[in-house]
Amino acid sequence: QITLKESGPTLVKSTQTLTLTCSFSGFSLSTNGVAVAWIRQPPGKALEWLALIYWDDDKRYSPSLNTRLTITKETSKSQVVLTMTNMGPADTGTYYCAHSLYRSGSGYFDYWGQGTLVTVSS
Amino acid sequence: QSVLTQPPSASGTPGQRVTISCSGNNFNIGNNYIYWYQQFPGTAPKLLIYKNNERPSGVPDRFSGSKSGTSASLAISGLRSEDEADYYCAVWDESLSDIVFGGGTKLTVL
Prior knowledge:
B: mainly beta
């Protein structure tokens, strides 16, 4: 059974750096073809893909946020960490991590965490 | 403003068949797989359709996906009250090198 759970601060100040951790079970990020992604959703708005890391440590980032994002994995801990620098009020929203499979194509997220709401104060 | 265009709302009565459209271009829908997600308020999205028309295990066959050219559709037949949710399409965009989501469609069951 695959589960994911996000953790991190619920409140950050403008210009600060956000660090979120995705802790997962039921799969290994050392398995060929497995990936974990981060996706966010501002209140009342649409989903936005942020970053993705593959089993082989290949990484992909949203072009619009590329300079602010870093995604890393700690395979032995079954964790993926996302850092986002220079946070602003527009970054307020629910942040999700999700399981993905390379063979199923980009846009495939079959298991999601419950999400964590991050509020940025100005 | 998303590169994928979805109607902001859709509605239907129980038992009806409704479709939700997702319009893009040759750099995204026209040349890549489309995915559909269902999201209830306050909960995480759920994968509904992948690779244009495949259903994950456990998704009822009332849900179906199709693609033609630069547009895609999600169809829900035998509409039920529990289908009332937000629906999002997603696809890889080659020109942006980005995974893009549509703006979402709020489905109301009347």
